[in-house]
Amino acid sequence: MRPVALVTGASAGLGTEFAEQLARRGYDLVLLARSEDRLRRLAAHLTGSHGVECTVLAADLADPDTPARVADDLARRGIVVHTLVNNAGFGSVGRFEDIGAGVDQTQVMVNVAALVGLTRALIPDMLAGGAGAVINVASTAAFQPSPYFATYSAGKTFVLNFSLALRQEYRGRGVKVLCVCPGATKTEFFDEIGTKAAIGPMMSASTVVGTALKALDRDRAYVTPGLRNSLNAHLLPRRPRTLVAAIAKLVTRSAA
To answer: Which residue of 85, 139, 199, 217 has the fewest CB atoms within a 10 Å radius of its CB?
Structure first.
């Protein structure tokens, strides 16, 4: 029996690439996103190219009830998830007071609350089986405050710290937890937020996902794909935080 991976945000970008590379590794897939048509096209491609079984779940992770409904649906189908990829997410950019009402609240629901909810819903089966993995997609924005990306960077900091804490809880219990912190990547992300300012060179989704899966194989706690991204994330001074935020503003102010 093949292991099953659930990938959120599977209809585009890193989510599609995670699905592709996991299928190549012999995983059956549960593909979750809002766009059912896109998911069905991806499922047909993965089944035809790799011979894997794909289950399509069209759902909106901004709805607080979605994680519970997904878990119930999987249980009814008899699907036990071995690897959860919490990839779904989006960002907002600009002066905080200019961002549309409700946008940042929805962002927190998708980027943070749904990630926690799905992890909580699916980890018990992993523990019961003595094996499993959770891959949480954060960002290099997780390493410092980012003016004009305030909610996005704060949410990704949560994802990083949450992942590191869970990894310690589950070490020795058969469940790996990895946080992936990519920099700018060639996906639809920047088209959706309406800016490509101040983001620097972009990596391919294929490279980011390949690096992430290799890090999972090695049971890494987190990984920042790309030497430039890793240096920027780790050489930036950690204290004082007000200085870090001021430096970050010099980089991101063109997005305001």
So the answer is: 217
Q: Give the pLDDT confidence of 76-115 residue by residue, as tens digits.
A: 999 999 999 999 999 999 999 999 999 999 999 999 999 9
What CATH code is carried by the domain that includes residue 64?
A: 3.40.50.720
pTM for the whole structure: 0.89
Burial of 49 (0-12, 13-18, 19+ CB in 10 A): exposed
Separation of alpha carbons 252 and 94, rounded Å: 9
CA separation for the pair 131, 49 (Å, rounded) = 27
Look at residue 3 and give its three-state secondary structure: coil
Enter the tokens of residue 57. Answer: 């779940």
Judge whether 152 counts as a catalytic residue. yes
Total domain count, the chain: 1
Residues of the chain with pLDDT under 70: 187-200, 235-256
Q: Cα(208)–Cα(189) distance, rounded to whole angstroms?
A: 14
Residue located via tokens 């980012």: 146
Cα gap 85→5, rounded to integer Å: 7
The catalytically annotated residue of 27, 148, 152, 222 is: 152
b (16+ CB within 10 A) / e for 23-45: beeebbbbbbbeeeebbeebbee
- The domain in which residue 169 lies consists of 4-255
Check if the beta carbon of residue 136 is closer than 8 Å to that of residue 115: yes
* DSSP state for residue 50 in the 8-state scheme: H
Q: How many helices (H) and strands (E) does the chain have?
A: 10, 7
Phi, psi (degrees; rounded to nearest 5) at 136: -110, 125
